[in-house]
């Protein structure tokens, strides 16, 4: 299944709690999206996450349903390492 990097920009600092995350995961599952992990910016107003999904549209549908932005959705295929080697993301 393809892997996508998703950039989300929030108007205010992100406040995450277990209940909210559980709801997001339920919606993702219904849309066929698997959230792998995310990085949170120092100002807590951006996240950069890796997701597994069949299409970018599935990610956008899940984001809309969850009330989350999905400002940039890019398919990624390889990881570039400091020694110059490229390895598949999955």
What is the element layout, followed by pairings?
Blueprint: E1 3-9, H1 18-31, E2 34-40, E3 46-52, H2 56-66, E4 72-76, E5 78-80, E6 86-88
Antiparallel strand pairs: 1-3, 1-4, 2-3, 5-6
Helix pairs in contact: 1-2
**Describe the biggest sheet?**
4 strands, antiparallel
Give the full name of the CATH homologous superfamily: ORF SCO4226, nickel-binding ferredoxin-like monomer
* Beta-strand content estimate: 35-45%
**Biggest sheet, spatial arrangement of strands:** 2-3-1-4
Rounded to the nearest angstrom, the radius of gyration is 14 Å
The rounded distance between the terminal residues' Cα atoms is 9 Å
What's the CATH class, please?
Answer: Alpha Beta
Which architecture name does CATH use? 2-Layer Sandwich
Give the count of helical stretches: 2
Task: Give, in order, the helices and strands.
Answer: EHEEHEEE
Fold-level CATH name: Alpha-Beta Plaits
Anisotropy-based shape: globular
Total E-strand runs: 6
Helix share bin: 25-40%
Number of domains: 1
Give descriptors for this structure:
single chain; 90 residues; alpha+beta; Alpha-Beta Plaits; four-stranded antiparallel β-sheet; two-stranded antiparallel ribbon; 36% strand
Description:
The mean pLDDT is 95. The N and C termini lie close together (9 Å). The strands form 2 sheets. This protein has a 4-stranded antiparallel beta sheet, with helices on one face. It is of the alpha+beta class and 90 residues long. The protein has helices spanning 18-31, 56-66; strands at 3-9, 34-40, 46-52, 72-76, 78-80, 86-88.
